[in-house]
Amino acid sequence: MLGALSRGSRVLATTHDVEPQSLLPERFGMCHFTANPEVAGFFEFRLRPGPCAEGNALRM
C-alpha cells in the first residue's frame, strides 16, 4: 500500500513495530528516534538515519 501511495508523492509512515521495515522497498528511506537514559524524559528528539535497531515503545 505504501508503494502505491508513494508514486508521485512523498509519504511519511511511522510505527513502533520494527518487523515491517524489512518489507519496504529499497526506494524508501528510513530514519528513527532513539531513547537515551541520559536525557531528561528518556527521549531524545533527534532524527537519526537508518532503520530502527530496537523497539523501544514498551521499554519507555
How does this model look, in words?
With 60 residues, the chain is mainly beta. The chain has one domain (2-49). The protein has one helix and two strands, in the order H-E-E. It has one helix at residues 2-6, and strands at residues 31-35, 43-49. It has a two-stranded antiparallel ribbon. The termini are far apart.
End-to-end CA span: 30 Å
Order of helices and strands: HEE
Q: Can you tell me the overall shape?
A: elongated
Q: Biggest sheet, strands in spatial order?
A: 1-2
Q: Extract low-pLDDT stretches.
A: none
Helical content class: under 10%
How many DSSP E strands? Answer: 2
Average pLDDT figure: 76
Q: What's the alpha carbon Rg, rounded to whole Å?
A: 13 Å
Number of helices: 1
By secondary-structure content and strand pairing, the structural class works out as mainly beta
- Strand residues, percent: 15-25%
Please outline the major beta sheet. 2 strands, antiparallel
Summary?
The protein is mainly beta and 60 residues long.
Write the SSE topology.
Elements: H1 2-6, E1 31-35, E2 43-49
Antiparallel strand pairs: 1-2
What distinguishing features does this structure have?
mainly beta; elongated; single chain; 60 residues; 20% strand
